[in-house]
C-alpha cells in the first residue's frame, strides 16, 4: 500500500502546526481571566446585579461543558482543523460583541459564546497533538499547557490598567487579536492539506476496493461507543472533575476566604494571581514526565499531596504561612496537564482521542459546574469555611482513587492495521 502514500503529507510542516497549537493555548483562558479583575467597572456600565455577577462565575465551567460536548460531533462532521477554526471564530465573535454589549443579558450571552468557543478548543487540542505529534505528545502538551497558564495569569495583571486608561470595553475586547493570530496557522494547515487529500483520494479510487485502507473512513460513532464503555475513560473523567472542581472553587472563593481570615480583599487578589502563575512550572514539567513514564501515578500522588497540605493549611491557619499554602495550592492543579497528555498517550488513533477528549472534558466540566455554586451555598449554610474545605479534601481523595485507574498503562482502541495509511479523511 505504499503506492497510496501522497508525496506530501498534510502534517509535514509541523512548525506551523506547533505555532497554531501554542497560540490556541494562549487563548483558552483569556476570556475567563480578562473580566473578573474589572467586573466592578463593567457592572457600573451595564448594570450587572449581584446575582448576575455570580452567574458569570459559573458560566466558564458550564460553557466548557456544553460546547466541549459538542466538539466531538462537530469534529466528526467537519474535521479537526476546520472545527478548531470555527471554535476560534466563535470565541473571537463573543469577545468582540460582549465588549460592545449595552445590557447585562447581552454581556452574559456573548460571554457564553466567547467561552463556548474556548470550550471546543479545550477538547480539540489533545487529538490534534495526537495527530501531528504522536512522537512528542508530552512535549507539545507541555507547550500549550504553559500557554494556557500564561493566558490565565497575564490578563489579571493588565486588564485593570487598560480599563483605567482607555475604558473597560477595550480591556475586554482587545484579546480577540490573539484569537485572530491563532486562526492564521490553522488556515495555512487546512489550505496545505487540500492538495494532499485530493491526491490521496484519487489514488484510493484507482486502487482495488479490497486494498483500500480502512483508515480513510471518517471517524464515526464507533469511537464514541468504545470510549463510553471504557473504564479508562471514566477514570479520566472523575480525575478531571475532581481536579477541575478544586481549581475553580479556589478561583471563585479564594479572595473571600482570605478576606474572612483578615488579610483583606487586595491580598486575596494578589494571592489569586500567584495561584494562577504557579501553574506554569507544573504545566511545563508534568506532561513531559508523563510521556516518559509507563505509569505516571506517582506524579498524581505528588500533586494530590500538595492539594491536601495546601487545603489543610488554608483551613486551619489561613493568615499564618499563607505563602506556603498558596505555593502548594498553585502546584496542586498539575494533575490537569497530566490528564491532557494521557488523552493522547492512551488513544491509539486521533479519532479515538477526539471522542475521549470530548467525553473527559465535556463530562468533567459538566460535573464541576456545581462546585463553585455548591461550595458557596455550603459556606452560607454552615457560616464557616470548614465544611467546604472538607468537601474539597474529599474530592482530592476521589482524585487519588480515580487517578490510579486513569494512569494504568493501557491503550484505548484496537491495534492499528499493518501497512495502513496514517491519514484520516
Q: Can you put this structure into words, describing what you see?
A:
It is found in: Cell membrane. Its main location: membrane. The chain has 20 helices and no strands. It has 425 residues and is mainly alpha-helical. The chain folds into two domains: 218 residues, Growth Hormone, Chain: A, CATH 1.20.1250; 195 residues, MFS general substrate transporter like domains (Growth Hormone, Chain: A), CATH 1.20.1250.20. Helix 1 runs antiparallel to helix 6 and helix 15 runs antiparallel to helix 16. The two termini are 17 Å apart.
List keywords for this structure.
Growth Hormone, Chain: A; 425 residues; globular; 2 domains; disordered C terminus; disordered N terminus; mainly alpha
Amino acid at each position: 500500500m505504499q503506492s497510496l502514500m501522497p508525496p506530501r503529507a498534510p502534517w509535514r510542516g509541523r512548525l506551523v502546526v506547533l505555532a497554531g497549537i501554542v497560540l490556541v493555548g494562549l487563548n483558552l483562558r483569556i476570556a475567563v481571566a480578562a473580566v473578573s479583575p474589572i467586573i466592578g467597572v463593567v457592572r457600573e456600565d451595564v448594570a450587572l446585579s449581584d446575582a448576575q455577577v455570580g452567574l458569570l462565575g459559573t458560566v466558564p465551567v458550564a460553557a466548557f461543558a456544553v460546547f466541549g460536548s459538542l466538539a466531538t460531533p462537530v469534529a466528526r462532521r467537519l474535521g479537526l482543523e476546520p472545527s478548531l477554526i470555527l471554535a476560534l471564530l466563535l470565541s473571537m465573535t463573543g469577545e468582540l460583541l460582549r465588549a460592545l454589549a449595552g445590557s447585562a443579558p447581552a454581556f452574559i450571552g456573548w460571554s457564553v459564546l466567547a467561552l463556548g468557543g474556548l470550550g471546543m478548543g479545550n477538547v480539540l487540542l489533545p487529538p490534534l497533538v495526537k495527530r501531528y505529534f504522536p512522537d512528542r505528545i508530552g512535549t507539545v502538551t507541555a507547550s500549550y499547557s504553559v500557554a494556557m497558564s500564561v493566558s490565565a495569569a497575564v490578563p489579571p495583571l493588565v486588564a485593570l490598567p487598560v480599563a483605567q486608561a482607555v475604558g473597560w470595553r477595550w480591556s475586554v475586547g482587545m484579546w480577540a487579536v490573539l484569537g485572530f493570530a491563532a486562526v492564521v496557522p490553522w488556515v495555512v494547515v487546512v489550505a496545505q492539506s487540500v492538495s494532499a487529500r485530493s491526491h490521496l483520494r484519487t489514488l484510493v479510487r484507482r486502487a482495488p476496493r479490497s486494498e483500500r485502507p480502512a483508515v480513510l473512513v471518517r471517524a464515526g460513532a464507533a469511537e464514541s461507543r468504545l470510549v463510553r464503555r471504557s473504564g479508562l475513560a471514566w477514570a479520566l473523567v472523575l480525575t478531571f472533575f475532581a481536579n477541575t472542581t478544586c481549581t475553580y472553587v479556589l478561583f471563585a472563593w479564594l479572595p473571600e476566604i482570605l478576606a474572612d481570615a483578615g488579610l483583606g480583599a487586595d491580598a486575596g487578589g494578589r494571592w489569586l494571581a500567584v495561584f494562577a502563575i504557579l501553574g506554569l512550572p507544573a504545566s511545563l514539567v508534568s506532561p513531559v514526565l508523563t510521556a516518559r513514564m509507563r505509569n505516571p501515578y506517582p506524579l498524581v500522588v505528588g500533586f494530590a499531596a500538595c492539594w491536601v497540605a495546601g487545603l489543610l493549611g488554608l483551613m486551619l491557619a489561613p493568615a499564618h504561612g499563607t505563602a506556603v499554602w498558596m505555593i502548594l495550592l498553585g502546584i496542586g492543579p498539575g494533575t490537569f496537564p497530566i490528564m491532557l497528555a494521557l488523552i493522547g498517550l492512551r488513544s491509539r488513533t486521533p479519532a479515538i482521542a477526539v471522542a475521549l477528549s470530548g467525553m473527559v472534558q465535556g463530562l468533567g466540566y459538566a460535573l464541576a459546574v456545581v462546585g463553585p455554586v455548591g461550595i458557596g451555598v455550603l459556606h452560607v449554610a454552615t457560616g464557616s469555611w470548614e465544611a467546604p474545605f472538607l468537601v474539597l479534601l474529599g474530592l482530592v481523595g476521589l482524585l487519588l482513587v480515580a487517578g490510579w485507574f486513569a494512569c494504568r498503562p493501557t491503550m484505548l482502541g484496537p491495534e492499528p492495521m499493518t501497512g495502513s495509511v496514517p491519514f484520516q479523511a
